[in-house]
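agent> step 3/5: call structure_predict on target 'DNase I-like protein' (Bimuria novae-zelandiae CBS 107.79).
agent> reason: downstream docking stage needs a structural representation; sequence fetched in step 2, passing through unchanged.
tool.input:
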Amino acid sequence: MASLVRFLSLAASVAVSSAVTIAEINGNKFLSPYNGQTVSNVTGIVTAKGPDGIWIRSTKPDRDARTSESIYVFGSKFASTNNLTVGDAISIGGKISEYRSSKDYVYLTELASPVLEERLSSGNAAKPLVVGKDTSNPPTQQFSSLDSGFVFAVPNNVSLISVANPVLDPKNYGMDFWESLSGELVTVRKPTAVNKPNNFGDTWVIGDWKVTGRNGRDGLTQVDKDANPETIIIGSPLDGSKNPATTKLGDDLEDITGVVTQAFGFYRILPTTAIKVKKSEKPALPSATKLKSDGKCGGITFGAYNVENLSPTSSHLPAVAEQIVDYLRSPDVIFLQEVQDNNGETNDAVVTANLTLTMLASAIVAAGGPQYAFTEVDPVDDKDGGAPGGNIRVAYFYRPSLVRLYKPNPGGSLDANEVLPGPTLKYNPGRIDPTNEAWTASRKPLVAQWEVLGKKGKPEGTFYTVNVHFGSKGGSSSIQGDARPPVNGGVEDRQAQAELTANFVKDILTQDKNAHVITAGDYNEFIAVAPLTSYVSISGLNDLDAVVGIKPVERYTYLFDMQAQQLDHMFISDSLKKGAKYEHVHISTWVDRASQISDHDPSVAKLDVCS
Ligand SMILES: *[C@@H]1O[C@H](CO)[C@@H](O)[C@H](O)[C@H]1NC(C)=O
Ligand SMILES: *[C@@H]1O[C@H](CO)[C@@H](O)[C@H](O)[C@H]1NC(C)=O
Ligand SMILES: *[C@@H]1O[C@H](CO)[C@@H](O)[C@H](O)[C@H]1NC(C)=O
Ligand SMILES: *[C@@H]1O[C@H](CO)[C@@H](O)[C@H](O)[C@H]1NC(C)=O
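tool.output (status=ok):
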């Protein structure tokens, strides 16, 4: 039976079509109409050679911008066996196949098992197409017609490109644009790096075409519904050279020529040789925040910083301390995220983090900063996600000479905080609904109530804080992957987390609409996406970026794939809006990978909390 099935499928695959053009093979959709079929007499000029195959461009182009005129010919010995070189015009046969290394990726159309039928001529021109000049401009807003108009729309994964196989619309959708150039030799003129390279040296770039969302550092920020489809990642060079590891956000690069392909979940250009940096943005680091504490309730400063898996033995601990002093100007209150327990990622029963926090406090003093006090609530061992054994949690640093907890009464790991008449808190500090399943493998927000000490030690202003680190985006699919809209990993959890946290804040503001409430931290989500739109509408809080009018393109704290994006936010209640100030300090996003202390940028706010 098995051999009969094999015989039948073999019979199907040898249905020979003759004299097809490359445009006909590619077709005007994502998948080839010839997938699985054997073809012959496919003519093209060799435009590039790679370690496992060659790229050929049709000698019989059509006039349809949707049908790529080039194709990848997969066969590692094909070029050497047949002594093929760039510029050779050849006629070949083989089997059309759609290849992907993961079911979550988009397929690459290729001609496999190639056979040379005829060598037609050599020395032909293999001129690259200049992107945006010989092609239309890459679309700047949408990735795919299947995204319901928003690449982060919920629900996710409503359809699959490999199933829907839409007709390409290269003028409107970024994925369609790059698919319509699959296999093509192209040049990107005046490229700019829009992220640091990944561990393989792959680097996201834009060319000299029209872009939207450009920030002051020359990267592209994700703004509203625009997640930057006009970008392309530059992969491994065809000549075996290595892309530099030190490229930075906004670096100007030499022109890049290479072939367009699809691999590891992204359209990419494999350059003929390694990327070269021409010029870097200056200065290398941003200046310190301009926001300095007034030392009284009319001008209290609040820092927020994801310190990336900080443990007592972290080599970056002294550098974090220096950043807090030199770049954040030692805010009066700091919302920290990703503080690990006293023995870091040693996976044992230790969960307390007082050594980690004491060491950070001492390092801040050593760096010329003030003596901070800290407060936090330990998680239950291994229950809050993050690196195994690390027991990351959120924690507050505060200047005890200026602010103190109002009637401190710390809750335990499993104690659910409540808003009592006052409003005051049942636990100070205490975690929000820690046993709720919404927090499975995630950090519980830490709520605290504070007072500011006036001249004679008399309390002068009060405020409430919620320090958050919502569930991660782990499990997300590629923004250029098969699932549309792509899977935004953990979005259902973050939705539930946002609702719980927002309802807690609402309880405070229902009792006292003038209460000073500040919530901050790593929300792991974008402001325009469902968990945070719910958060704002339920809580009644205001997005501080919008309150102070930071330009939308400058609202970023993180680099991911092709974009500068904002995962870290601060929200304030109405009574704090007047005179509010806020800055993102780009000490992490601007520097090269090796110089990066944390993967997030910190932010600083200055608020009037006098009551
Ligand atoms: C290939 O196609 C051309 C016309 O497109 C034709 O002249 C030639 O005979 C064909 N060769 C083979 C081997 O089929
Ligand atoms: C390989 O092709 C080149 C021209 O493309 C030619 O000069 C050379 O003689 C060929 N070598 C062999 C071994 O056929
Ligand atoms: C941490 O807390 C434990 C238990 O309260 C205490 O014994 C220890 O001395 C503390 N360590 C530091 C560095 O404060
Ligand atoms: C998307 O949904 C399909 C079922 O329609 C499923 O097979 C696939 O694994 C999902 N993709 C991701 C990335 O979760």
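agent> step 4/5: record observation. Residues 128-282 form a domain with the OB fold (Dihydrolipoamide Acetyltransferase, E2P) fold (CATH 2.40.50).
agent> proceeding.
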